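DUF4097 domain-containing protein, pasting as requested.
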Amino acid sequence: MKTLTATAVLAVAAAALTGCGNVSFGSGEETRSYTAPAGITALKITGDGSRVQVTATDTPTIKVSERLRWSNEKNKPVAERLTEDDTLTLAAKCARATVGFSRCGVSYRVQVPRDVPVEIDNRDGSISASGLAGAVKLHSHNGSIEVTDLRATSASISSRDGSLRVSGRATTADLDSSNGSIVATGLTADRLTARSRDGRIKLSGDVKTADLDTANGSIDVAGLTAERVTAKTLDGGVRLGFASAPTHVRASSANGSIRVWLPTSESYAIATSTDNGSRTIDPSVHQDSASSRSVKLDTRDGSILVNSADQRSW
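C-alpha cells follow.
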C-alpha cells in the first residue's frame, strides 16, 4: 500500500468571533491535483459531503482534483488517497462540529479511462458521471445522481434521498431511490430494474426486460422498444407507450388509471380489470385470446384505456 503525492494550493481565511470566550473559528479551502500511478485499473470513492464528478476520457491514467472546504478549524476535512493492488481509493471524512454552524466537505473531479470500474459512496452530496464503460456502482445517502453517456456492462445506481437521472446503455441496470424520482431517457439495456418508494418513474429507449415499481408515484413510459414490461404502483397512474409490439405486459395500480399504447401490427391477448372505472380498448388494436403477446392491466380505482400507438410521436 502507498500514499500518492499531491500538489496543494492552500487558501485560508481565519476569523475570530467575539463574545465566545476563547473559542475560535476559521474558514478555508484547499485544492489538490494529482495523477494516479500507472497500472491503476479501478476507482473507489467514499465521500462525507459535497459533490463527486467522474468523467471518462481516452487518457490511460486517472487524474484527480479534490477541493476541501471548511467553516470551522475544528472540523477541517481529512482526505486520503491510497493505492492498493490495482485500485485507487479516495476517502474523505469530517469531524463533528462542537459549537455553532459548521460546513465541511470534500468535492472531487476525477477523470478515468473509460473501461475503469467505478464505485462511489457519497454520504451527503450529489454524484455525476459521464461516459463510464466499466462496471458502475454509485450510491448517495442524501443527494441526486446523474449519469450520462453510460456504456457500462453493469450499473447499480441508488440514493436514499435524491432523484436519479440516467441515459446511455448498460447490459444490466439497477436503479433504486428511497425518496425521489427515477428518469431513464434514451436508455438501452438488456434488463432494467427501477424502484422508488416515493417518486415517479419515467422511461424511454430500448430495454428488453423492464421491471418498474413505485410505492407512491406515477409510471410514464414513452416510445419504448421492449419485450417484457412489468409496471406496478400503489398510488399513481400508469402510462405505457410502445414503439414496437411487446410480448409480455403487466401493469397494476391500487389507486390510479392505466393507459397503454400498442402498435397495431400485431394481435394481443388483453385482459383488463378495475373495481371502479371504465375499460376501453380501441377497435384498431387487434385482440386474440390465443396470441402469444400477453397484456394484463389491473387497477382497483381508476379507468383503463388501450389505444393504438401507430399515430403517436414520442
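Note for the archive: The chain has a mean pLDDT of 90.
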